[in-house]
């Protein structure tokens, strides 16, 4: 099989634990692009938090794309042009806020290029540090959320979030709910996930499902792992997900992405 597209999750997949792209991964990604393969980043991260990595990989030189906010936005790396965007109405975000109060959880969303939060919490600070986006602490979350947004995140200690998540998922209707890290429960509009946006992009580029490799490590990657012609986990995948991929390669700290390219593309 000649694969035409390689879709990469970022955190804990392409990026090592220092949030860096290894030289070996960069080398093999460069080789794949030179061979005519589309390399696409697909992340729960906001678009601005993906751009520097995309340019580090020279995706802009090949006219490639990013799927950000778990697929809620598809954009061109070079121009920033948005091909697709699906937001949640502010009223729905206000409802999610009410649930966060009911269950004593922290909640954030993204407005005007800022992370909006009403509470202080170490994982909110982590999201700001991870994405490089400014954190705006507000006295009233609902008043600050005056317009639609593409994503909300509930945040809590992993042990508690794991217990509360099934209840939240039963209460949240008409949305997609998934985890990216053990302390993040992410909510996007119904029908929005990495697979749905990958399918949109593939159709835009005239690429068949069977010609796609997707690589990830967590629950928010599962949809694209199952959608792609070849679904690949890195070895540090969330343990209960291991059975769902076609292949498991080396971990994010051991150049798993390079292994994928070497074995299946070059």
From TrEMBL:
InterPro entries named among the record's database cross-references:
Cof, HAD-like_sf, HAD-SF_hydro_IIB, HAD_sf
List the molecular function annotations (GO) for this entry.
magnesium ion binding; phosphatase activity
Domain of life according to the entry: Bacteria
Signal peptide (residue range): none
Gene Ontology CC terms, in alphabetical order = cytosol
Q: Which NCBIfam families match?
A: Cof-subfamily (TIGR00099), HAD-SF-IIB (TIGR01484)
Protein's name according to its UniProt entry:
Cof subfamily of IIB subfamily of haloacid dehalogenase superfamily/HAD-superfamily hydrolase, subfamily IIB
Instruction: Give the source species.
Output: Flexibacter flexilis DSM 6793
């Amino acid at each position: 099989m000649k694969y035409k597209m390689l879709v990469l999750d970022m955190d804990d997949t392409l990026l090592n634990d220092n949030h860096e792209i290894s030289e070996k991964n960069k080398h093999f990604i460069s080789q794949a692009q030179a061979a005519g393969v589309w390399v696409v980043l697909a992340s729960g991260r906001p678009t601005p938090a993906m751009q520097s990595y995309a340019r580090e990989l020279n995706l802009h030189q090949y006219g490639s794309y990013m799927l950000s906010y778990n697929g809620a936005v598809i954009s061109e790396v070079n121009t920033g042009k948005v091909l697709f965007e699906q937001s949640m109405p502010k009223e729905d975000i206000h409802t999610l806020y009410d649930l966060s109060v009911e269950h004593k959880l922290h909640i954030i969303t993204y407005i005007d290029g800022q992370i909006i939060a009403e509470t202080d919490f170490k994982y909110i600070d982590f999201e700001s540090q991870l994405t490089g986006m400014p954190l705006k602490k507000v006295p009233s979350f609902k008043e600050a959320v005056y317009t639609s947004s593409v994503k909300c995140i509930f945040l809590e200690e992993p042990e508690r979030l794991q217990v509360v998540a099934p209840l939240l998922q039963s209460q949240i209707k008409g949305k997609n709910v998934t985890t990216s890290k053990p302390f993040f429960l992410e909510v996007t509009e119904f029908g929005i996930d990495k697979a749905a946006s990958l399918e949109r992009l593939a159709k835009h580029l005239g690429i068949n499902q069977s010609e796609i490799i997707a690589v990830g490590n967590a629950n928010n990657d599962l949809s694209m792992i199952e959608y792609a012609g070849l679904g690949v986990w890195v070895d540090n995948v969330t343990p209960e997900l291991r059975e769902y991929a076609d292949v498991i390669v080396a971990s994010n700290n051991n150049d798993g992405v390079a292994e994928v390219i070497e074995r299946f593309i070059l």
